[in-house]
Structure formats: structure tokens, C-alpha cells
Amino acid sequence: MTDPIHIWFDGLNSPIRLQGCPELVGAIRQILPQWPFVIAPVSDDIEVAATIRSVGNRRYEIEPRTGYGGDRRYDTVDAICDMIVQLSWELLRSGQWLMCLHAAAIEMAGRLVIVPNMRRAGKSTLTACLAARGHRVFSDDFFPVSLSGDGYLQGHATGICPRLRLPVPEGFSAGFQEWVQAHSGPGNRRYQYLALPELPRHGAACPLGSIVVLDRRETGSVEFGELDLAEAIAGLLYQNFARSVHSGTILQSVSELLSAVRPYRLSYSSAEEAAEFLEGRFGDWSDAPALVGNAPAFRLVAEEDLANPRPNFDPSLAYVRSEGFLEVAMNDDHYLSDGSGLGIHRLNKGALAIWRLLEEPMRLDQICDVLAVAFPDTPHETIERDSSQALRMFVENRLASAAASGVLV
């Protein structure tokens, strides 16, 4: 039996373990050509990011760091696709990234245009069209963001070839079809990796330029306009890989990102027409990259906090805001991160009113009494139900804690 090996990728603290499948190394080099790695003998005292095992007939199973890989059997391309997902988690554990977005990032005139992942919106195909027009692809899936020494937000290349979903839809030009064939890397029935000669090296940095959310339609010409900020906030907060990064870091980073980088919506039916439009729209940048006004502090979620169960809500107790929370107002909406960094929560007007009351210790019945005076036309049953739901949410998500004994309420 072939001895297992460890693959150490640049910048990661833990390796990938290959067990009985050294043949994958060649495909890994093809699919991740600009992410350097070294191969080393296995050391049993090292925690790995994931283990890939051969199960025979060029099929593989994957055991991630969490210890559960399921019963799925992968071919070569799908095994490496899943390995890349595990690398993204390890990248976050190993680096000082403010966030890692689920998005494509394409360099245009010296800045990055970010295209967040929206299901079936055509992100991968549009990325391929832009690559065919000569633009460098920093990422087409997970995209790490950091703060430069000069104080602006920058994105980093993954060094991984972009992946095109197959089959290529009908209606593309013969020139694009020929380009795809000429740049074909490893693939299977579902995906085709594209071997690009100008792929940036892993870690290469470039300032952020704009955010473009895709809206693919069956017919119609290209339409382009500013995106509603609330929609942009939701897209960036919840298209984020960075679960191990403290939610306060993510929340503040998104706030700073949207104050520095303008979001747009691109509606289109033809990816080639959309690529041509973006090339014209972002052919130059009239201003310097925007500086971040309030630099986010990088923090990771503590391992012990990840393991702690949710607190129980007791409506008879007085509660007060927990320590360490972060509150951010964006576009008249209010978002909270708990001190442990486990979640981000958007507050509606009712929840925000209750949050304001929790500056001092209060019981549920006291909260209901205050709100009944403030909203005399609202049925008491409605106030009690909504207040109970909001207070329970605050408690279970570690935003509010039981007041210390002896506190007068």
C-alpha cells in the first residue's frame, strides 16, 4: 500500500492528508497551479485540514477536520473541489482575514470587481467571459479580504483555476466556445476547470473597486444601476465563509466595505454582453481607493465558545445587555454581534425598542408594561408575544444575560 503523505499549502497551518491516492497530486497541481505547496511524510501528531482516501476505481472519500465526511464517493475533480472547500476553512483559521466572501473577484483596470454568489445567477460563466477578454481572475468562489498597511480594503488571489459549470449554455459565440476548449483543464460531466496563463499567484493583493450583484434574466438587454444598500448588506453578511472569524469583525468589515465600495445590480441575459458592459464600465477608476475610517480588529471565535450550549431563557428573570456586544447601524437598519462572536442579528423596530430598554436590567413583564404605555393601540397579547420572542432571541444568542443577584429592578 502507498504510504500516506501530507500536502502543505503556503499560508496554512494544517496540511491535507492523502491516503492511498498519490495520483491526485498531479490534478491538484493543475487545478491549483498558483498556490504553492510541498509534500512531506505523514506525522501523526499533526492535525490535518482534511483527509482524502482512495476507495478504489479512482473514487475517493473525504474526512474533513470536523471528523464527518458522509458516505459520498468522489471522482478526481469532485474530490479536489471538496478539498478546496476545506482549504478555505483552513485559510481562515490560519490567517488574519477580515472576512472570506463567497464571491468571484476579477481585476479590472487595477481594482477588483466583486461578484457575490447568488444561486444560478451566472457568476462562474460571467467570470469565464471576463477571463476570455483578458482580465485576471483572483477568485471565482471563496475570496479573502484584508486591510492593507495603507488603510484600504484589499482582496487576495487564491491561485486556483476558475471552474465553469457544464454544459456551456447555448447562445455563446463560437469565439468563446473555442476559447473554453483551448483553456480546458481537468473536468468531469458537471464542471470544467479553466487553465489560465495569467492566473495571479496565491496571496497576490489588489484594492477593492466595486460590488456587482447579478440578476440573470431569460431575455433583455443589459441594465445597470445602484443596488439597494439593505440588499447589499444582506448579501455580504450571509454569503460569508468566515464562521471561525468573530462576528464583530465581520459586521464591522461589511460596514466599512459598503462605506468604501459602491454596490450595483447588473441585470442581463447574455453573459458575453454583460462582460463587455463591465469592461467598459470599469475600464478606469476616477478616484483613489477609499480609506477605511474605522479599522476592524481581527478576532477569531474562541474554541470554548463554539462548544458552549445556548443559554436558557427564563421569563421570570431580569435581563441586561451582555458585555462585549457590537451594534452597527447601516441604512437605518441595526445589526448586533454578540461578545462571543457567534452570530449577527438584524433588529426590526420592535426588537430595537426592547434592546434599548435592556440598557438597564428588566424582566419580561416590565418590558411589556413600558411598551403598552408607548403603544396604547397595540393589543397586550401582541406586545407580550413579540416581547417574549425578542427577549428569548437576545438571551439564547448571548446578547442579554441574567442580571446579577441583588440588582434592584
Structural features, described:
The chain is an alpha+beta fold. It has three domains: 5-93, Rossmann fold (3-Layer(aba) Sandwich), CATH 3.40.50; 96-281, Rossmann fold (3-Layer(aba) Sandwich); 303-402, Outer Surface Protein A, domain 3 (Alpha-Beta Complex). It is 30% helix and 27% strand. It is built from eleven helices and 21 strands. The strands form five sheets. The chain has a five-stranded mixed β-sheet with strand order 3-1-2-4-5, with helices on one face. The longest helix is centred in the N-terminal third of the chain and has 19 residues, at 76-94. It starts with a strand and ends in a 7-residue tail after the last strand.
Helix content range: 25-40%
Instruction: Give the end-to-end Cα distance, rounded to a whole number of Å.
Output: 70 Å
Mind telling me the C-alpha Rg?
A: 24 Å
Report low-confidence residues grouped into runs of 5 or more: none
- Please outline the major beta sheet: 5 strands, mixed
CATH topology of the largest domain: Rossmann fold
How many beta strands in the DSSP annotation? Answer: 21
Protein structure class: alpha+beta
Label the overall shape: globular
Query: Which percent range describes the beta-strand content?
Result: 25-35%
The number of helices is 11
The strands making up the biggest β-sheet line up spatially as 3-1-2-4-5
**How many discrete domains?**
3
Q: Mean of residue pLDDT?
A: 89
Tell me, what is the CATH class of the largest domain? Alpha Beta
Using the 3D structure, state the CATH architecture of the largest domain: 3-Layer(aba) Sandwich
